[in-house]
Specification:
Number of helices: 16
Number of strands: 19
Radius of gyration: 34 Å
Strand order of the largest sheet: 9-12-7-2-17-16
Length: 586
């Protein structure tokens, strides 16, 4: 029950299944408190198994999976203790419950591979507050932040084909597009689509045969958008790329999300989506010096020339990066930054540059996401890119008619462009090193099991059945029947191979050896009486036989010995008795 309660702490009560699991856990605890009879304790064991299964449906990553497995093993051991009623020790019960689990694994594997997968249950909208920490938010207002507080909590992890990350200058992972500006704050105009028929959605799903090049593990963020490079094709029906280049995930945003993307360097459809009127929106008169500077560039005939003019201007000014820039005034905040303060972080530069481009007549928008990441090569398994909230970054995109939306990072134009890609993050201590190794195992588990999504299942069924999908039910039943037969045979073999506890096995082995020598117990004869008969026939066996009988009776009727000690002593005594028995004359 304690293990089940620990697993409940990671669930979200605003999910349907999460609320059900928490409610079932509370009911199970109450039932355990009031249980008195065998039948009531049996119900508690079964409720524990159902509760662990509910947790597994929502928390399938490695850590919770191990916790759920331990819960199931203990619940099965308790159920076996209730059903067998033989007073078996915990070692025997745990071993038998592990055997039951091993026999059930083929059944679970058949269901996992062949039964159609369900879409995730939706969550209620989460309420999030603003905080001046490094990370992502659905709005960007750099002028209101006086200081950035570092946040090294994990954001996402991703593996790549061939086990190698992209070049450092290509490690931009877009999440949110901010295309609405009120003079102070940048927000996004795109909302999570209700379904595939949303007019903003762009269907770019990869073909069923596409390989999952990138596997992402995105930590809970409260955002519908998830990180990606902006290139590639989603390999999951829960993913949807919208017209702004946001990759939206239909799964619950308050829990970790796993998704795969087929790598593709071609230009995606969102990059060719023409700008709307909002991409030139700029409140006039709020930042007059900014508008005057941009007006001098607007006379240039081509948008690319205006972009180059902005590049030269930023390079010629004495800008610097600072995590403590102080707040900007409410009146003309961008003017104060560009012409007076001239120090800030990525949000300041992306915001001011985008506003300059709009004032110069070039459609532009702000994009927030992550830049860089630390490459981790664990001892075992493939390497992965570790993204932290401290890798959060903001940059710009401008519309060039001959090219589409081009990525521009004005933070790179200043003398010290701030923290770069986190290749050289401080040397990890022992705790962080262990955490990285654990994450390596976690992402390997995810690639092996959680990477098997609807797309992968469709490809498997196509290989097995081709166009004859009507035979899927018969195939499932046949596979389950074969697995059940094999499981029962395995349990029967294990039962014959390992009857009873250790001392009992030692006694039965000694009795078989004596029987082959010609001495077998009579029906109803006690062990001491049988030992006395054996001594009368073979007096030379008396020391070893008496010691063996004394140890066995001490184990059965005396104070409980230390776990495993009685079995070892009896096994040693039985070997001595066997050697003396072999030296008897014919």
């Amino acid at each position: 029950m304690a293990l089940l309660a620990i697993g409940l702490t990671g669930l979200q009560p605003n999910l349907l299944l999460g609320a059900m699991a928490i409610g079932l856990g509370a009911l199970t605890a109450l039932k355990l408190w009031e249980a008195r009879s065998l039948a009531e304790h049996r119900i508690v064991s079964l409720l524990l198994l159902v509760g662990a299964g509910l947790q597994a449906s929502m928390r399938p990553d490695l850590g919770p999976s191990l916790l759920q497995a331990a819960t199931i093993v203990l619940a099965l051991a308790g159920l076996l203790a209730l059903e067998l009623g033989e007073g078996l020790g915990w070692q025997v019960l745990l071993r038998r419950s592990a055997q039951v689990l091993a026999a059930a694994l083929p059944l679970a594997l058949v269901l996992f591979l062949l039964v159609p997968r369900l879409s995730p249950f939706s969550a209620l909208p989460s309420q999030r507050g603003s905080a001046a920490t490094v990370g992502l938010s659905d709005s960007l207002e750099p002028g209101s932040i006086s200081e950035l507080v570092g946040n090294a909590s994990p954001a996402a992890r991703v593996t790549f084909p061939g086990g190698q990350p992209p070049a450092a200058d290509r490690r931009y992972w877009r999440v949110l597009v901010h295309d609405r500006f009120d003079g102070v704050r940048w927000t996004g105009s795109t909302a999570p689509p209700a379904g595939a028929n949303d007019p903003r959605a762009i269907s770019e799903a990869a073909p069923p045969t596409a390989a999952a090049s990138q596997l992402w593990l995105n930590e809970a963020s409260g955002l519908a958008a998830v990180p990606w490079s902006g290139r590639g094709r989603p390999l999951s029906r829960e993913l949807l790329a919208d017209g702004g280049g946001e990759l939206l995930h239909r799964g619950p945003s308050d829990q970790r999300r796993v998704y795969a993307i087929a790598d593709d360097d071609s230009v995606n459809l969102w990059q060719r989506q023409p700008p709307g009127p909002g991409d030139l929106g700029l409140p006039r008169g709020q930042n007059p010096r900014l508008e005057a500077l941009a007006a001098s560039w607007a006379a240039l005939p081509a948008p690319a020339q205006r972009l180059e003019a902005a590049h030269r201007w930023f390079r010629s000014q004495n800008f610097s990066y600072s995590a403590r820039p102080g707040t900007l005034p409410q009146r003309a905040p961008l003017d104060a930054f560009l012409f007076e303060r001239r120090q800030g972080f990525c949000g300041h530069y992306a915001s001011s540059f985008t506003a300059l481009m709009r004032a110069a007549g070039v459609p532009a928008r702000v994009v927030s996401g992550y830049r860089g990441g630390s490459w981790v090569q664990p001892i075992g398994g493939n390497g992965y890119l570790d993204l932290r909230q401290s890798d959060a970054h903001a940059w710009s995109e401008v519309w060039l008619p001959a090219e589409g939306w081009r990525q521009v990072d004005p933070s790179l134009w200043i003398a010290n462009g701030g923290p770069g890609p986190a290749e050289g993050r401080a040397r990890a201590g022992a705790t962080e090193w262990l955490q990285q190794q654990w994450w390596g195992l976690d992402i390997g588990w995810t690639r092996l099991w959680l990477g098997y999504d609807r797309q992968s299942q469709e490809a498997l069924l196509r290989r097995l059945l081709g166009d004859h999908r009507q035979w899927l039910g018969a195939l499932v039943l046949l596979a389950l029947g074969l697995c059940l037969t094999a499981a029962l045979a395995l349990l029967s073999w294990l039962q014959r191979r390992s009857p009873g506890d250790g001392p009992r096995r030692a006694l039965e082995t000694a009795l078989r050896q004596l029987a082959r020598a010609g001495m077998a117990p009579e029906p109803g004869e006690t062990l001491p009486a049988f030992a006395q008969r054996v001594e009368q026939r073979w007096p030379q066996l008396a020391p070893e036989l008496r010691r063996f009988v004394a140890l066995y009776q001490q184990h059965r009727y005396g104070p409980p010995p230390r776990p495993g000690r009685a079995g070892r002593q009896l096994k040693r005594s039985r070997r001595q008795l066997s050697r003396r028995l072999q030296r008897l004359p014919p």
